[in-house]
Design a protein that fits this description.
The chain is α/β, with parallel strands linked by helices and about 400 residues long. It has 16 helices and 16 strands. Strand 11, helix 9 and strand 12 form a beta-alpha-beta unit.
Amino acid sequence: MSAGFSFQVDSKIQDRLGRTGEIQTPHGVIQTPAFIPVGTKATLKSVLAESIKDFGAQAVLANAYHLYLQPGSDVIDEAGGVAKFMNWDGPTFTDSGGFQVLSLGVGFKKVIAMDEKTFQADDVIADKKERLAHVDDDGVTFKSHLDGSLHRFTPEVSMQVQHQIGADIIFAFDECTTLHNTRKYQEKALERTRLWAKRCLSEHDRLTKERSNKPYQALFGVLQGAQYEDLRRKAAQDLGSMSEDGVSFDGFGIGGALDKQTLGEILRWVNEELPENKPRHFLGIGEPDDLFVGVENGADTFDCVAPSRQARTGSVFTKDGRLNISNAPHKREFKPIEDDCTCYTCQNYTRAYICHLFRSKEMLASTLATIHNQHFIVGLVDQMRKRIKTGEFFEYKKEFMGRYYGK
Ligand SMILES: [Zn+2]
């Protein structure tokens, strides 16, 4: 590991891969496991940077793809990096843009035809949907979702963009597949991702040297392989031991095609193979039950847009499950969303008021609901961390799950 970045494991869950630890970055420390809120465009939608700190988040994850298109990663470089640009005094992550360039193009619900539950295909595009991305062995050509202009991401471009954005933790450019791709295609994509990972390491090393006056950025390799155990284990072995001119990954991101039923198993496969002394980020996970499974199986950090996205529709977390605060029964509830919640929203506002804001479409509705939801999910993972340290992880899981899901 290089200057300003390190990771150490503190304690473990007995007979499991789950652990607590500490990631040191040039912009501060992240106690793990931790939930990292998503600020796609260098803003956590509807809340101030001060609120992010206030509700307890330790870091923010932004999207390289979005920031490259707007305002342009060169602008963020000029501003002094994404943390300074958004007035966030703490660690930051950026994802590689791989998921976005591809999800807007060749896969996923909004583009791919999903009529049949069991079909597998590599080139099935839904009616009236235009393919916005094309993958080849060198990179991805895609159309901007903003203005239709044509762009190209290669592993080198992704590294250049992420170095300009300047987050503490950045990710290698990968080909993100879906569960609907054929096994043959998964193999091909995995090999492509492996070769791209090597190119990312080389370019990252070159840029780190060229920009030696900037804070060190840690590069995480991204593991694909969909639902296949042999492919997932191979990806973990390949990237876990990969070294280009003595440079290896500082950590790993587990991404791509997985569903609720298999995510724990997939995580276990890869974490059994990965070096123990490097942090692992589980990309795109944010539901409480998935977070428990993720922590238990050795993920150190998580990110997901869900807590904020759900908040903006009025869907708020409580220990007894989610409720929609805009529904009529809450119109006269002059108490907080949760009585014992210590978030700014619950300390100062009632369900009745927030219900009124949603029903009258006031902007403050999103702000207050987002603060509560983020506080809830960040706090949930914080509790998991505390309970691992005291040896009570499974007791806590049982207690929380029993109440939240009523089972
Ligand atoms: Zn609250």
